[in-house]
């Protein structure tokens, strides 16, 4: 079950059978194609089902509305970015911490570019009230994950200042 703090969107059905999973993924792929080629304003349930060769009832079996589809796509994008940052955080070398920051930013950028439709999706995560929490929660989690490396590199900083720097770094990245 996918949900947000305001309960404005929630998952309708999680597919379990292979054919249903394929249809579910086809809806995501169609949405990403629309986002990549036409932008956020072209994305609607009718466009998605047409591009996915599905039916409106199929769409509404899996998604309550367009916002819920975007919410799930946003969670997927944040997960891809977070895995990249977590891998970098796990491999911290304090002798080249700032070089690693640059490498991590590049790697995060690369996985974002490879996520089809990411540009329009990121705009939605920044500008749509019901979706903003996805990006903010992800960025806070990544700041908490990277804070120990900053604290080790700059031991004189307070915990609050370490978190601020980590959060700023994640946001700028």
What structural class should be given to the helix and strand makeup? mainly alpha
Whole-angstrom Rg: 18 Å
Instruction: Count up the helices.
Output: 8
> Could you give the order of the helices and strands?
HHHHHHHH
Helix content: over 70%
What is the straight-line distance between the termini? 30 Å
3D architecture notes:
- With about 170 residues, this protein is mostly helical.
- It is built from 8 helices and no strands.
- The longest helix has 25 residues, at about 65-90.
- Mean pLDDT is about 85; it is low at about 1-10.
What are its keywords?
mainly alpha, 8 helices, 74% helix, elongated, disordered N terminus
List the helices and strands and how they pair.
Layout: H1 18-38, H2 45-52, H3 56-62, H4 66-90, H5 97-114, H6 118-127, H7 129-153, H8 159-172
Helix pairs in contact: 1-2, 4-5, 4-6, 4-7, 6-7, 7-8
């Amino acid at each position: 079950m996918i949900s947000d703090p305001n309960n404005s969107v929630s998952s309708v059905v999680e597919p379990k059978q292979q054919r249903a999973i394929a249809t579910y993924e086809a809806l995501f792929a169609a949405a990403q194609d629309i986002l990549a080629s036409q932008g956020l304003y072209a994305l609607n349930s009718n466009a998605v089902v047409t591009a996915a060769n599905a039916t409106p009832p199929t769409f509404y079996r899996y998604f309550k509305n367009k916002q819920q589809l975007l919410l799930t796509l946003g969670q997927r994008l944040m997960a891809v970015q977070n895995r990249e940052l977590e891998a970098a955080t796990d491999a911290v070398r304090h002798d080249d911490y700032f070089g690693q920051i640059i490498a991590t930013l590049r790697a995060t950028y690369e996985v974002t570019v490879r996520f089809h439709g990411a540009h329009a999706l990121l705009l939605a995560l920044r500008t749509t009230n019901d979706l903003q929490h996805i990006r903010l929660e992800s960025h806070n989690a990544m700041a908490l994950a990277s804070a120990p490396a900053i604290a080790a590199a700059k031991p004189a900083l307070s915990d609050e200042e370490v978190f601020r720097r980590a959060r700023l770094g994640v946001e700028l990245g």
